[in-house]
Protein backbone atom coordinates (compact mmCIF):
# COMPACT_ATOMS: atom_id res chain seq x y z
CA UNK A 1 0.00 0.00 0.00
CA UNK A 2 1.48 3.35 -0.98
CA UNK A 3 2.01 6.18 1.50
CA UNK A 4 -0.61 8.28 -0.31
CA UNK A 5 -3.23 5.51 -0.04
CA UNK A 6 -2.40 4.99 3.62
CA UNK A 7 -2.72 8.73 4.28
CA UNK A 8 -6.11 8.86 2.53
CA UNK A 9 -7.32 5.81 4.44
CA UNK A 10 -6.18 7.34 7.74
CA UNK A 11 -7.91 10.63 6.92
CA UNK A 12 -11.21 8.95 6.04
CA UNK A 13 -11.02 6.79 9.17
CA UNK A 14 -10.34 9.86 11.33
CA UNK A 15 -13.24 11.80 9.87
CA UNK A 16 -15.57 8.82 10.33
CA UNK A 17 -14.42 8.37 13.93
CA UNK A 18 -14.94 12.04 14.77
CA UNK A 19 -18.36 12.07 13.14
CA UNK A 20 -19.40 8.94 15.01
CA UNK A 21 -18.19 10.43 18.29
CA UNK A 22 -20.18 13.62 17.71
CA UNK A 23 -23.36 11.71 16.92
CA UNK A 24 -22.77 9.32 19.82
CA UNK A 25 -22.36 12.26 22.18
CA UNK A 26 -25.66 13.68 20.97
CA UNK A 27 -27.42 10.38 21.52
CA UNK A 28 -26.18 10.05 25.10
CA UNK A 29 -27.17 13.54 26.25
CA UNK A 30 -30.25 13.79 28.45
CA UNK A 31 -33.22 15.08 26.46
CA UNK A 32 -33.09 18.51 28.10
CA UNK A 33 -29.45 18.99 27.04
CA UNK A 34 -29.78 17.66 23.50
CA UNK A 35 -31.99 20.56 22.44
CA UNK A 36 -30.32 23.90 21.75
CA UNK A 37 -30.89 26.41 24.51
CA UNK A 38 -31.29 29.34 22.16
CA UNK A 39 -32.28 29.49 18.53
CA UNK A 40 -31.08 32.55 16.69
CA UNK A 41 -32.64 33.10 13.30
CA UNK A 42 -30.39 34.92 10.85
CA UNK A 43 -32.76 34.75 7.90
CA UNK A 44 -35.79 32.70 6.85
CA UNK A 45 -33.60 29.99 5.32
CA UNK A 46 -30.66 29.89 7.73
CA UNK A 47 -30.45 29.05 11.40
CA UNK A 48 -27.66 29.07 13.98
CA UNK A 49 -27.83 27.21 17.25
CA UNK A 50 -25.91 28.74 20.12
CA UNK A 51 -25.87 27.38 23.64
CA UNK A 52 -25.30 29.55 26.70
CA UNK A 53 -21.83 28.12 27.28
CA UNK A 54 -20.45 28.64 23.76
CA UNK A 55 -18.05 31.52 23.35
CA UNK A 56 -17.59 33.80 20.37
CA UNK A 57 -13.97 32.75 19.92
CA UNK A 58 -14.63 29.07 19.18
CA UNK A 59 -12.58 28.53 16.01
CA UNK A 60 -14.58 25.60 14.68
CA UNK A 61 -18.09 27.07 14.90
CA UNK A 62 -19.91 27.18 11.65
CA UNK A 63 -21.36 30.59 10.94
CA UNK A 64 -24.24 29.83 8.68
CA UNK A 65 -26.08 26.78 7.49
CA UNK A 66 -28.13 26.15 4.40
CA UNK A 67 -30.88 23.57 4.39
CA UNK A 68 -34.36 22.90 3.13
CA UNK A 69 -36.69 20.79 5.22
CA UNK A 70 -38.01 18.07 2.96
CA UNK A 71 -40.25 15.10 3.59
CA UNK A 72 -38.01 12.04 3.36
CA UNK A 73 -40.79 9.58 4.28
CA UNK A 74 -41.09 8.29 0.67
CA UNK A 75 -37.57 6.88 1.16
CA UNK A 76 -38.82 4.55 3.91
CA UNK A 77 -40.11 2.08 1.31
CA UNK A 78 -36.72 1.73 -0.38
CA UNK A 79 -34.88 -1.30 1.02
CA UNK A 80 -31.20 -1.63 1.73
CA UNK A 81 -28.46 0.01 3.71
CA UNK A 82 -28.84 3.62 4.82
CA UNK A 83 -25.87 5.94 5.04
CA UNK A 84 -24.87 9.54 5.53
CA UNK A 85 -22.74 11.18 2.84
CA UNK A 86 -20.36 14.05 3.58
CA UNK A 87 -19.17 15.91 0.49
CA UNK A 88 -16.08 18.07 1.04
CA UNK A 89 -15.06 20.91 -1.28
CA UNK A 90 -11.45 20.37 -2.32
CA UNK A 91 -11.01 23.76 -3.99
CA UNK A 92 -10.86 25.54 -0.61
CA UNK A 93 -7.57 23.93 0.44
CA UNK A 94 -8.75 23.13 3.98
CA UNK A 95 -6.38 21.26 6.29
CA UNK A 96 -7.35 17.82 7.62
CA UNK A 97 -8.39 19.06 11.06
CA UNK A 98 -10.60 21.74 9.54
CA UNK A 99 -12.20 19.18 7.23
CA UNK A 100 -12.88 16.86 10.17
CA UNK A 101 -14.56 19.67 12.14
CA UNK A 102 -16.67 20.75 9.16
CA UNK A 103 -17.74 17.14 8.51
CA UNK A 104 -18.79 16.88 12.15
CA UNK A 105 -20.89 20.04 11.79
CA UNK A 106 -22.59 18.54 8.72
CA UNK A 107 -23.19 15.14 10.34
CA UNK A 108 -24.68 16.61 13.50
CA UNK A 109 -26.85 18.98 11.45
CA UNK A 110 -28.22 16.14 9.32
CA UNK A 111 -28.96 14.18 12.48
CA UNK A 112 -30.75 17.18 14.00
CA UNK A 113 -32.88 17.67 10.88
CA UNK A 114 -34.12 14.10 10.69
CA UNK A 115 -34.52 13.60 14.46
CA UNK A 116 -36.35 16.85 15.31
CA UNK A 117 -40.03 15.98 15.77
CA UNK A 118 -41.08 19.57 14.96
CA UNK A 119 -39.27 19.53 11.61
CA UNK A 120 -40.81 18.62 8.26
CA UNK A 121 -37.71 16.48 7.76
CA UNK A 122 -38.52 14.32 10.82
CA UNK A 123 -38.32 10.64 9.90
CA UNK A 124 -37.80 8.30 12.86
CA UNK A 125 -38.12 5.17 10.72
CA UNK A 126 -35.28 6.15 8.39
CA UNK A 127 -33.23 7.48 11.31
CA UNK A 128 -33.56 4.19 13.19
CA UNK A 129 -32.61 2.17 10.11
CA UNK A 130 -29.41 4.20 9.96
CA UNK A 131 -28.72 4.35 13.71
CA UNK A 132 -29.19 0.67 14.46
CA UNK A 133 -27.38 -0.67 11.41
CA UNK A 134 -23.98 0.89 12.02
CA UNK A 135 -24.49 4.60 11.20
CA UNK A 136 -22.62 4.20 7.90
CA UNK A 137 -20.92 7.35 6.64
CA UNK A 138 -19.00 8.06 3.47
CA UNK A 139 -16.74 11.03 2.83
CA UNK A 140 -16.55 12.23 -0.77
CA UNK A 141 -15.07 15.19 -2.57
CA UNK A 142 -16.32 17.77 -5.02
CA UNK A 143 -14.30 20.40 -6.83
CA UNK A 144 -16.37 23.58 -6.59
CA UNK A 145 -19.33 25.45 -5.15
CA UNK A 146 -21.18 25.00 -8.44
CA UNK A 147 -20.80 21.23 -8.18
CA UNK A 148 -21.98 21.32 -4.55
CA UNK A 149 -25.04 23.38 -5.55
CA UNK A 150 -25.97 20.77 -8.17
CA UNK A 151 -25.61 17.96 -5.63
CA UNK A 152 -27.77 19.89 -3.15
CA UNK A 153 -30.50 20.44 -5.74
CA UNK A 154 -30.44 16.81 -6.84
CA UNK A 155 -30.71 15.64 -3.22
CA UNK A 156 -33.74 17.84 -2.57
CA UNK A 157 -35.40 16.60 -5.77
CA UNK A 158 -34.97 13.00 -4.51
CA UNK A 159 -36.35 13.79 -1.01
CA UNK A 160 -32.94 13.43 0.66
CA UNK A 161 -32.08 15.70 3.58
CA UNK A 162 -29.36 18.08 2.45
CA UNK A 163 -27.38 20.49 4.61
CA UNK A 164 -24.58 22.86 3.60
CA UNK A 165 -22.17 24.09 6.27
CA UNK A 166 -20.79 27.61 5.85
CA UNK A 167 -17.62 28.44 7.76
CA UNK A 168 -17.33 31.37 10.16
CA UNK A 169 -14.00 32.34 8.59
CA UNK A 170 -11.99 32.54 11.81
CA UNK A 171 -9.15 30.26 10.77
CA UNK A 172 -8.30 29.02 7.29
CA UNK A 173 -10.92 30.15 4.82
CA UNK A 174 -13.10 33.14 3.97
CA UNK A 175 -16.21 33.71 6.09
CA UNK A 176 -19.36 32.28 4.58
CA UNK A 177 -17.57 29.71 2.43
CA UNK A 178 -19.62 26.55 1.88
CA UNK A 179 -17.35 23.76 3.09
CA UNK A 180 -19.24 20.48 3.41
CA UNK A 181 -22.56 19.15 2.12
CA UNK A 182 -24.25 16.62 4.38
CA UNK A 183 -26.70 14.24 2.69
CA UNK A 184 -29.05 11.85 4.43
CA UNK A 185 -29.26 9.56 6.18
CA UNK A 186 -30.86 7.92 3.16
CA UNK A 187 -30.85 4.59 1.36
CA UNK A 188 -27.52 3.92 -0.35
CA UNK A 189 -29.25 3.33 -3.69
CA UNK A 190 -30.69 6.86 -3.60
CA UNK A 191 -27.46 8.48 -2.42
CA UNK A 192 -25.64 6.73 -5.26
CA UNK A 193 -27.92 8.58 -7.71
CA UNK A 194 -26.62 11.84 -6.24
CA UNK A 195 -22.99 11.06 -5.43
CA UNK A 196 -22.22 8.04 -7.61
CA UNK A 197 -19.74 9.96 -9.77
CA UNK A 198 -17.80 11.45 -6.85
CA UNK A 199 -14.48 10.11 -5.60
CA UNK A 200 -13.77 9.14 -2.02
CA UNK A 201 -12.06 11.80 0.02
From TrEMBL:
<feature type="compositionally biased region" description="Acidic residues">
    <location>
        <begin position="50"/>
        <end position="65"/>
    </location>
</feature>
<dbReference type="InterPro" id="IPR002833">
    <property type="entry name" value="PTH2"/>
</dbReference>
<dbReference type="GO" id="GO:0004045">
    <property type="term" value="F:peptidyl-tRNA hydrolase activity"/>
</dbReference>
<dbReference type="Pfam" id="PF01981">
    <property type="entry name" value="PTH2"/>
</dbReference>
<dbReference type="GO" id="GO:0005829">
    <property type="term" value="C:cytosol"/>
</dbReference>
<dbReference type="InterPro" id="IPR023476">
    <property type="entry name" value="Pep_tRNA_hydro_II_dom_sf"/>
</dbReference>
<feature type="region of interest" description="Disordered">
    <location>
        <begin position="31"/>
        <end position="65"/>
    </location>
</feature>
<feature type="compositionally biased region" description="Low complexity">
    <location>
        <begin position="31"/>
        <end position="47"/>
    </location>
</feature>
<protein>
    <recommendedName>
        <fullName>peptidyl-tRNA hydrolase</fullName>
        <ecNumber>3.1.1.29</ecNumber>
    </recommendedName>
</protein>
<comment type="similarity">
    <text>Belongs to the PTH2 family.</text>
</comment>
<keyword id="KW-0378">Hydrolase</keyword>
Amino acid sequence: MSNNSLLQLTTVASISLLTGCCIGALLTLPKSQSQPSKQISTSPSTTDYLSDDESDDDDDDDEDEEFIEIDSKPLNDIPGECRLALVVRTDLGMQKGKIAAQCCHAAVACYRLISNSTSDAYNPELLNRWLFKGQAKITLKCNSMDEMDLLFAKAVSLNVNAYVVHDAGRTQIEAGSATVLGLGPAPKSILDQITGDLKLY
